[in-house]
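Troubleshooting entry. Yesterday's outputs looked truncated, so today I'm pasting the complete records for two proteins to confirm everything comes through intact. If either block looks cut off, that's the bug. Protein one:
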Amino acid sequence: LRSVSVADMAQVTLYSYFRSSCSWRVRTALELKGVQYEYKAVNLINGAGDQTTDEYKAINPMAVVPSLVVDGEVLTQSLSIVEFINETFPGVSFLPENPLLRARARAIAAAIACDIQPVQNLRVLKHQADRNAWANRVITEGFVGIERLLVQSAGLYSVGDEVSIADICLVPQVYNARRFNVDLTPFPTIVRVEAALNELPAFQASHPSRQPDCPPDLK
């Protein structure tokens, strides 16, 4: 693979589904950096899902979203993409300069993106008799730990007073919690931080209701 620099980036394309947490993380990262990009919708619930077509699997062999195409180079997996965006585009950084705070931000992001969300996503839910009950339980259990982590690290946002990769992961997961009727009363720090983040234009622009493939009844 050739080296990709900011100067090379004539075109950025995001393959996304409006309600995908993983896609949402990447949208937020792009918005925080002010990157202009083309949005290509991948309908995950259209029959077997557009992600299972040979055409899409030629882009992403794992048959998942998101996929980010930058000047012809395909990037996959949301946390990897978010870090690529952070390292490649100028502007605000998603990772604190302090090594300890940087590790904490990555830990919160990983706890959400690796421990909670995959267990309640569509691949798992479709095998559950009671999808809402399953998702509610796994999110609630996960948020017990996330709340404790945020009590230790939060300022205005998840880690101090600057937006980080932890926040990029937190907001979609709180949306999922509400979608599956999780009682957020025991998680006041999570709720406070999410409310502060939702005041920021980048988080507003990346919200599912603002995406071109969002159904009218959900806008």
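Protein two, checking that the full record survives here as well:
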Amino acid sequence: MPSPDLMKELLRGVLQGDDAAAAELVQAIYTEPDVKSCEGFALDRTAAVDLTLATDNFGIWVDPLDATAEYVSGKGSEKLFHGVFLSGLHCVTILIGVFDLKTGEPVMGVINQPFFEKDETTQIWKSRCVWGLSYAGQRAHSGIRSIRPQYPESAKPQVVIMSGSETDAIKEALDECFTTIYAAGAGYKFLSLTLGLADAYILSRATTFKWDSCAPHAILRAIGGGVCDLSKALIDFDLQFVENNRKYELQYLHPDDPDAEIDECWLNAGGILAYANIDALTEIVTKLRQVMADGLQQLDD
């Protein structure tokens, strides 16, 4: 990392000569973070992990600000549905994911939720950090889980979290089989899944990038879940031997479509099927194959 003085000069160039802003950013960059004030850091949970990792074997995907629109709006999160905030600052996340440069598999991930909880007295936000490691047969994670609200008996048992930008046909099809939640921010939807507030995160379109999914993918693997290419799940999944479907999980080394334009080549081109528990995957995919086919048929009609 460059010296603080050089970093300040570099930032001044980006910030059109704003000396004060550059100085504040430099102070933030070079100040050791107070991890004790961050909910869920729990580094003691790594004590059982015995790994020596060569840093040159790994790459990093970073999303410094997911749910940008929610951050820019600056609005609080008022609507809470089944334990999930649907919009607002709660949906903003910072995503840091590490992947293996040989296999492309996700290895470690951190999701920071900077606007987790607001102190009504001081009006200061408290952050929350969720992390996970899954590598060489070893797993560790922050262990944070939320208590899923009690659903009415009439509710469908499996909960799917989705984007509000899905087509009406897809929404209607999935509403038939699942309890559906529509929330802002890819990172926040992944976070809700890792916290146990949903059973799956489904996205039928190529609107997320590798930096959106790498960190949560690693965390989900650490707790027994994963993130698959939805298009492959709908066609190629082995429903008898679910473990065989690991080959359809997202990878982070190569573009899904190498011929795509530079601003699109790192998209998750086949959509997303993220899950927190592999045991529930067979039933979810079976239902998805039918309801997604119905939804896509409606689009063709």
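Both blocks look complete. Sanity check on protein two: Residues 87 and 184 are 5 Å apart (CA to CA).
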